[in-house]
From TrEMBL:
It holds the Pfam family DUF2905. The keyword Glycoprotein does not apply. It comes from Rhizobium azibense. The chain crosses the membrane at residues 23-50, 70-93. This is DUF2905 family protein. InterPro entries: DUF2905. Keywords: Membrane, Transmembrane, Transmembrane helix.
Amino acid sequence: MTTTRSGKKDAVSKLGYHPIDRILIASCAMSRVLIIVGLAVVVVGILWPWLVRIGLGRLPGDILIERENFSIYIPITTGLLFSILLSAMLWLLGR
């Protein structure tokens, strides 16, 4: 326990961080993750014309349903591939 200017006791965790400090630390970590995800989206957006040429976006396992009035595309395999790549990038950055 620490004492504030008013003389009241202030709660401090076992690690020595005030609860407000832990919120700020978590907020900074979340900000970092969102920036990394945003940069990854920008990079994929910039590289998309070349990625489509090599077949990314029409991989085996991606579902395309076309009817007279509509079409739906469900990129299951492409989504899994991006998920694996993003997880690996975040894991490497977290080390």
